[in-house]
Amino acid sequence: MSVNKVILIGNVGADPEVRYVEQGVAVAQLRLATTERGYTMQNGTQVPERTEWHNVVLWRRLAETVEKYVHKGDKLYIEGQLRTRSYDDRNGVKRYVVEIWAEQMEMLTPRQEGRGE
């Protein structure tokens, strides 16, 4: 048996990028920041705050929801799978990208009045 499951709660770093591929299928990409708070150990050593940035990919219905309602700064719950892909950059160097392919999303930021939603 194997399991590939990622659960994140974090803040959107910029407005999501949404595009439509074959037959009008929506795909959204966003960057999600998760932050571990800093703390002081018993011996007085300071451990600084640490932020990780995650590339999240959402398809179809989730992408359409993201396009309408998700904005920079919003807090999201994302559940999905870890995927790695590669590409060759302009100089022909192979680069790798780690992404979370979302299967489930919940918006945790309360909707604001007057935002047009």
CATH architecture designation: Beta Barrel
What would you give as the CATH superfamily?
Nucleic acid-binding proteins
CATH class: Mainly Beta
Label the overall shape. Answer: globular
Count of discrete structural domains: 1
Mean pLDDT: 93
The CATH topology is what? OB fold (Dihydrolipoamide Acetyltransferase, E2P)
Q: What topology, given as strand order, has the largest sheet? A: 1-3-6-8-7
Question: What can you tell me about this protein's structure?
Answer:
The chain has one helix spanning 60-69, and strands at 6-12, 17-21, 25-36, 39-40, 46-47, 50-59, 75-88, 94-107. It is mostly beta strands. The protein has one domain (6-35, 49-107): OB fold (Dihydrolipoamide Acetyltransferase, E2P). The chain has a five-stranded mixed beta barrel. The mean pLDDT is 93.
Summarize the structure.
The protein has 117 residues and is mainly β.
Structural features:
single chain, 117 residues, mainly beta, 5-stranded mixed β-barrel, two-stranded antiparallel ribbon, 1 helix, 8 strands, 9% helix, 56% strand
Layout of secondary structure:
Elements: E1 6-12, E2 17-21, E3 25-36, E4 39-40, E5 46-47, E6 50-59, H1 60-69, E7 75-88, E8 94-107
Parallel strand pairs: 6-8
Antiparallel strand pairs: 1-3, 1-7, 2-3, 3-6, 4-5, 7-8
